Design the sequence.
């Protein structure tokens, strides 16, 4: 009987996921934990972990089906939402390590916009803040997670270049200095570090001409050998059911009619902050999705197969476990998770370290931020306990309080500092 239930749940999930992936909604997606309510009501949890689901087993088909359906509901919220990890936490960390309040805001805003296409802050009642027009990002819809045709999907799911028999990487602490394997991650990082007008390109899939060191991430131009190549991939719905996707190497699409070589002029004065925010988002998602992307592979072109191949048709990429693992990221007791699922802790730790490096490059680094005590106070003793809070309004307040204790004003739209 239990086996029949498990098989039925698996089939139902495969059918539901297939319908979702073939025609994905274009706006709000997986990572938001705060969803705004209509009519001025307080925000609600976008997709809380079902009460019947354990913290130590993301693979149960019934939990996976319920979690997936909840995220389907989240995708259709008319006012959308935001992620306290991508937005508020990034803002507080950036400000703490030395970025100005303005720069910290735009880094965080573009971090969030990488999921949503554009971001404008709303208050706890779901209303746009008074100066929302001045705080709204430019459209970067080409990078959105559901956009397979533009290659936006690959800013969120970043597999490594390796053979199917090679050992899996450690996606809980990905190597940001390994362009031979971490192609997309190191590619976007290099582009972000180059700053406005920098010579590093931003290419679909992260694929460049081969560099002097032989990697496909850090070449001088987007891949063409001598012509652009196909990027052919598969992404699991419910293994072995998968959705195929196809791109072509070249400049990354940023928005309709805007390619990556036009990025700085399109964004304007905050283009460097936007570059950093996009990279920080890709880094966070590399860690968030590591159970899938560690198992995934990229194959480079060869004389008899002139295409890049991306294989994400893996059981750990199935939509049920994917949804459950996102529901592990806020509003639960992180200590109850298996170590490989404690992605919020791993991501915030690396985001902190990387923002220190960017602040150093920008010449704004607060020397105090390089001490372990400062990092631990902010991440381990501050943001992580705050993000465990179950009630969404109280979670917003707790995250804001972490910044307030460090002299960081509330993120626009968040509850004001108390006391």
Sequence:
């Amino acid at each position: 009987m239990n086996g029949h239930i498990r098989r039925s749940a698996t089939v139902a999930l495969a059918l539901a996921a297939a319908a979702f992936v073939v025609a994905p909604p274009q706006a709000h997606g997986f990572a938001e934990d705060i969803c705004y309510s209509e009519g001025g009501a307080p925000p609600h949890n976008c997709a809380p972990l079902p009460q019947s689901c354990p913290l130590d087993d993301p693979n149960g088909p019934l939990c996976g089906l319920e979690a997936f359906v909840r995220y389907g509901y989240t995708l259709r919220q008319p006012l959308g939402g935001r992620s306290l990890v991508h937005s508020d936490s990034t803002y507080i960390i950036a400000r703490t390590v030395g970025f100005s309040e303005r720069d910290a805001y735009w880094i965080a805003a573009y971090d969030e916009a990488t999921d949503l296409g554009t971001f404008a802050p709303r208050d706890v009642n779901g209303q746009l803040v008074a100066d929302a027009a001045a705080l709204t990002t430019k459209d970067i819809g080409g990078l959105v997670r559901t956009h397979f045709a533009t290659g936006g999907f690959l800013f969120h799911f970043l597999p490594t270049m390796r053979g199917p028999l090679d050992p899996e990487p450690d996606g809980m602490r990905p190597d940001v200095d390994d362009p031979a394997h971490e192609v997309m991650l190191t590619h976007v990082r290099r582009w972000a570090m180059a700053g406005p007008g920098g010579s590093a390109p931003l290419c679909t899939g992260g694929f460049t001409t081969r560099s002097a060191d032989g990697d496909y991430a850090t070449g001088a131009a987007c891949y063409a050998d001598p012509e652009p190549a196909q990027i052919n991939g598969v992404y699991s719905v419910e293994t072995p059911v998968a959705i195929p996707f196809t791109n072509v190497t070249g400049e990354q699409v940023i928005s309709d009619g805007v390619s990556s070589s036009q990025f700085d002029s399109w964004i304007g004065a905050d283009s460097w902050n936007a570059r950093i925010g996009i990279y920080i988002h890709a880094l966070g998602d590399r860690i968030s999705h590591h159970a899938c992307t560690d198992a995934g592979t990229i194959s480079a072109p060869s004389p008899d197969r002139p295409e890049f191949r991306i294989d994400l048709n893996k059981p750990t990429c199935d939509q049920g476990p994917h949804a459950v693992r996102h529901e592990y990221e806020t509003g639960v007791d992180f200590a109850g998770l298996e170590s490989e699922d404690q992605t919020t802790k791993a991501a915030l730790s690396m985001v902190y370290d990387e923002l220190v490096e960017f602040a150093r490059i920008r010449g704004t680094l607060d020397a105090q931020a390089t001490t372990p005590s400062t990092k631990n106070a902010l991440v381990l003793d501050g943001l992580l306990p705050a993000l465990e809070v179950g009630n969404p309004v109280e979670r917003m307040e707790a995250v804001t309080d972490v910044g307030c204790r460090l002299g960081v004003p509330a993120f626009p739209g968040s509850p004001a500092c108390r006391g």
Q: What stands out?
A: The first strand starts at residue 34 and ends at 35. The radius of gyration is 20 Å.
